[in-house]
Structure formats: structure tokens, C-alpha cells
Write a structure and sequence with these properties.
The chain is mainly alpha-helical and 434 residues long. The chain is built from 17 helices and two strands. It has a two-stranded antiparallel ribbon. It is globular.
Length: 434
């Protein structure tokens, strides 16, 4: 690490093995964030390395303190409920293990809370994510403008993963950059404001003309509303007016955006505007899910049973869309089918506890709120927590942002005692406890 000694900055080796592991875990977390929009395999390998670096630095006392709060305990409770759901599943153990595996990542959230509650490098993780997205943006424009597929089998403009994750990351970057631009504008950092506004424009152009998912088109107004509600009504009105103007320009000049909006509203079989997983198919999955949930409403059918239930679903006749699906494309249904109403209550309690954690002001709270709102909204149309990319994005970003918020709250110290009727101080961050 770099330290200033005698007016000179020199490289100094960490004093202890513990300090070395702490700094290594922080560095790996930044690299994980960088690769989140770029590579699935790199993230998988880096998470293992991160655990190897972080686990020796943890104490039982720290873990117990975290699990005493609902934002950390509820993700663990959802995993434990899914483990219990393996006991009443009527499928083989390989299917049960396949059902529990996507939820195990939630156990990382309390560990990230601990790490970034004691580390001051949380913003570097945010910068790492944005650096990875900026690199992806550059490659996307290169492929699109040259009409060349940079990766075999993918259309120009889609470099890695798919258009759903690419546009989702770009939407997150747009709203993080807006927050940064506002803070830098107030601090009179003109050059940084110009760079941030140009990046916002570049991300929006890519979303409007190169690649966008129907989910992203719904997430944007939700985040825009949250951006305005955190400020005064004038800023909210100006933000809505600016978005309406940009949308009108994109609508009149982008045939691609028109096509995507048409596909978002169409449910007609055989409509050429419909992509592989159409609205019509989703409606079939959801209808089957409701039917199956009614059969075991309280505890569900057990962990790992969704593919088997869909494969043998006969209410819509043989060879229906449902028979070829492996998940209901809705996170609530995915949980309810396996662990019933109890699982849904735990899932929504987790989302609510995380939302309450980010209700304060500042970049850390906004970082967490943006990713949370995107995940919750996207989970209406996909099983985002169960998916690899979206699920790990939620875990990493919520864990890091939550640790940053807790660190800031700890620095401020306990809130002063307020007499009845006295106004409360603004900007105080608190969190529910179990």
C-alpha cells in the first residue's frame, strides 16, 4: 500500500497477515464489480478468491452482530427456508441441489456488510462497476458502428452476455452518474460534471439505439421517479420533462426503440415483433404458476421442483409453452412455487429491510437504492435473484452499499435524544432489527 513518509509516497507492505487479507479482499471486490457486466466465469472465480481472502479476517462476534439485524438476517433466512424446502420436494437430490444453488449467493450479503462497514474503499467498488460498464459501452459502440459481431453468435452491439443484462447495467450507470453530476455541480467541479453528463448521454444513446430490454424500459421511469422524490418537486418536474423530451427524440429517430416498445405491448401469437421469451409465453408461465401455487400455498412444492412441475404440467395441453420452461420468469412465483407463502413473506421482508437501509441521503444510499429498485422491478418479469448476473449484481451492490451506509451511520454516532414534538434531524440512516 502507498504511504506518505517524509513528503514522499512509497510502497509499504502491510504490517500483518490480517491487514494484508483485508486489503486483498477489498481489491478483489473492486475487480469483481468490474467484471460483473463483462464475464460470468471471471466473477465465479473471483468470488472464490474473495472468500479465501475475507473469511480469515472475520470473527464470530462480527457475524453474530450482523445477523442480529434484519437486512443481514433475512437473506440468510431465505436460504435456510430453501434448504428446509429440500426435505418435502418430490424430485431427486440433484434437482433439489440445483434449486438451492442459485440462492446460496445471498449468504454473501452479511459478509459484505461486515467488510465495508470497516473499510473506507466502498466507493472503489462503485467505480469498478462503472469502469466495467464504460468498457462494455465502448465495445458495444465499436461493434454497432462497424456492423461487426465482436463475439461469434451475437449481433453487433451486444458484446458479452445479452441485451437484458447490458441495458440493465447501463441504466444503473445513468442514474449513478446523475447523482455524481449533481454532487460535482454543487461542489463546482466543472470538468467532472461535463464528463459525467457526456457519459450519461452515451449510455442513453446506446439504450435507445443499440440494445435495450423491455424490463429496462420499465425500470427507467421507476428510477426517475425515485431520483425526483429524493429532491424537491422542482427537480422532480425538471427530470420528468427532460426524460419526456429525450424519449420523444428517441421515439421519432429510433426504429429499434419503436420495435422494442411494440414487442413490450404485444401478446399476439406469431407476431414478428416478439422475442424468444414473449409476453404471451410469460402469461402462460404465470397462469400455470398460480395454478400450481394453489395446490401447496403455505409451504410450496419444495426446493428444486419448478422444472419438473412445468415439464409435467398438463392443464394447457401437451407440448405447451409451459412444458418447455424451467422457471416462471417472476421471482415471487419462483419462491412461492418452492417455499410457498412463507417464502414470499421472507423475500419481500428482505427487500423492504434493504429499502429502509437506503432511505437516507448520499451516494452510498443512492447506489443501493438504484440496484434494489432495478432488481425488484426486474423481478416482476424475470427471476432476477436466481439468475447469475442479476443475482450477483444485487448481492455485491447491496452488500457494499449497505456496508458503506452502516459505516457512515457509525461515524455519526447514536442519534441525539429528541423530546416529543421536536423535529427530527434529516439524513439520519437507521435500520430495522430483529
Amino acid at each position: 500500500m502507498l504511504r506518505s513518509i517524509g513528503g514522499r509516497r512509497i510502497l509499504v507492505w502491510p504490517a500483518t497477515y490480517h491487514e494484508f487479507n483485508v486489503r486483498t479482499a477489498d481489491a478483489i471486490a473492486v475487480v469483481i464489480a468490474f467484471f460483473l457486466p463483462l464475464s460470468t466465469s471471471a466473477v465465479a472465480v473471483l468470488v472464490v478468491l474473495w472468500l479465501l481472502a475475507l473469511l480469515p479476517t472475520l470473527s464470530i462476534r462480527e457475524v453474530r452482530q450482523q445477523l442480529a439485524t434484519s437486512p443481514a438476517a433475512l437473506p440468510a433466512a431465505l436460504v435456510l427456508l430453501a434448504v428446509a424446502g429440500m426435505l418435502w420436494a418430490d424430485v431427486g437430490w440433484s434437482d433439489r441441489l440445483a434449486g438451492i444453488r442459485p440462492l446460496l449467493k445471498l449468504l454473501v450479503i452479511p459478509l459484505l456488510f461486515i467488510q465495508f462497514q470497516r473499510s473506507d474503499r466502498g466507493l472503489w467498488v462503485l467505480y469498478g462497476l462503472m469502469a466495467g460498464c464504460t468498457l462494455l459501452l465502448t465495445m458495444s459502440f465499436v461493434g454497432f458502428l462497424s456492423s461487426v459481431s465482436l463475439i461469434h453468435g451475437k449481433p453487433p452491439g451486444i458484446v458479452v452476455k445479452d441485451y437484458i443484462s447490458q441495458s440493465g447495467f447501463f441504466v444503473v450507470c445513468v442514474f449513478l452518474l446523475l447523482e455524481m453530476a449533481e454532487e460535482d455541480f454543487r461542489a463546482r467541479r466543472g470538468v467532472r460534471v461535463v464528463v459525467e453528463v457526456l457519459l450519461v448521454a452515451a449510455f442513453l444513446i446506446n439504450i435507445g439505439y443499440v440494445a435495450v430490454s423491455r424490463t429496462a424500459l420499465i425500470v427507467v421511469p421507476v428510477l426517475l421517479l425515485l431520483f425526483g422524490l429524493r429532491r424537491n418537486w422542482k427537480i422532480a418536474v425538471m427530470a420528468c420533462a427532460a426524460w419526456a423530451l429525450l424519449f420523444a427524440i428517441a421515439w421519432t429517430s429510433s426504429p429499434y426503440l419503436k420495435h422494442r416498445l411494440h414487442s413490450a405491448a404485444s401478446v399476439t401469437a406469431g407476431d414478428p415483433a416478439l422475442p424468444a421469451v414473449s409476453n404471451r409465453q410469460r402469461l402462460a408461465y404465470w397462469d400455470a404458476s398460480v395454478d400450481l401455487i394453489r395446490q401447496a400455498p403455505l409451504l410450496g412444492h419444495g426446493t428444486g421442483t419448478v422444472p419438473s412441475m412445468f415439464r409435467h404440467y398438463t392443464a394447457d395441453g401437451p407440448e405447451s409453452d409451459v412444458n418447455r420452461a424451467a422457471n416462471p420468469h417472476n421471482q415471487t412465483f419462483a419462491i412461492a412455487l418452492q417455499t410457498g407463502l412463507i417464502g414470499v413473506i421472507v423475500l419481500y421482508a428482505m427487500w423492504i429491510s434493504h429499502a429502509l437501509m437506503f432511505r437516507g441521503s448520499g451516494m452510498a444510499a443512492w447506489f443501493g437504492l438504484v440496484v434494489l429498485a432495478q432488481n425488484v422491478t426486474g423481478s416482476l418479469f424475470n427471476s432476477h435473484i436466481s439468475d447469475f448476473t442479476q443475482g450477483w449484481t444485487y448481492v455485491i451492490c447491496i452488500g457494499v452499499a449497505g456496508g458503506m451506509v452502516r459505516r457512515q451511520a457509525k461515524k455519526r454516532g447514536p442519534a441525539p435524544t429528541v423530546s416529543p414534538g421536536a423535529p427530527r434531524a434529516s439524513g439520519t440512516v437507521s435500520e430495522p432489527s430483529l
